[in-house]
Automatic annotation (TrEMBL):
UniProt keyword annotations, A-Z: ATP-binding, Cell inner membrane, Cell membrane, Membrane, Nucleotide-binding, Transport
Protein name in UniProt: ABC transporter ATP-binding protein
Alphabetized GO MF terms: ATP binding
Keyword Ligase: no
Domain ABC transporter intervals: 6-257
Amino acid sequence: MSDAMIEVRNLTMRFGGLTALDNLQLDIRRGEVLGLLGPNGSGKTTFFNVLTGLYKASAGTITYNGENVIGKTPQDIYRSGVARTFQRSRLSLPLTVFDNIVIGDYQHMQHGLVFNLFRRQAFRAEYERYVEAVRELLGIFSPPLVNRLFEPVESFTMIDRRRIEVCRALMSRPRLLLLDEPSAGMTHDETHELMDDILQVRSQLKDLSVVLIEHEMNVIERITERCVVLNYGKKIAEGTYAEITADPDVQTAYLGEEAA
Ligand SMILES: Nc1ncnc2c1ncn2[C@@H]1O[C@H](COP(=O)(O)OP(=O)(O)OP(=O)(O)O)[C@@H](O)[C@H]1O
């Protein structure tokens, strides 16, 4: 496929006797929002972990920028433009919104001791650049948060914390954003609001590709352009929301799970 930004071929991930990804083939296209679906334990998070370099695949390739990323470090993959959020919050609650978001750009920061001690003016200028950049990002994503930049994250609601996590991932100006169940633990209304924010970001950052793991079907229907469904680590369906929900294999995978 010519507009594929990421090409996954024959990807397999085994944990001892368990095959979490089984000869997976999929493409992530430039600028799309791709939904990654599947019953619990079907391999969705494992795919994110392999793609971001946390796990090394047992076999297969993931081609990005013409190179296979398998075997690269998480830092290298992150620097090349792949950012993610996690199912469980990774925010540091006593730190401010600013601190938590700026950590997302750690790899681009000048942070050597010599720089901090002897180049005070440059340090100050960099700090001010970051304040501006964080304000700008929050301005796109959630304007009310701009005025609360220096408040500790622990004083924020769940939805605002999720917004802060997404902004942290966006701070590195990724080309691919991986969102692992962003609606987890939120109410229906909060989920709806967060998706509005994500759509807003998409409309401003046109080239950004997003892969969304999500169990809420109405979220998937609303914000994805294409979906891939996994079951036992294999791709069982691919297409628009309407296509995959009409697919008998998908229905069996989900109903089978309910019946179990
Ligand atoms: N580090 C690991 N060691 C051993 N087994 C693992 C590890 N990580 C994942 N697995 C197993 O791999 C399978 C796929 O898990 P994964 O978390 O990728 O599923 P998932 O589709 O993201 O599920 P959920 O929707 O519940 O988050 C599961 O059987 C899981 O127990």
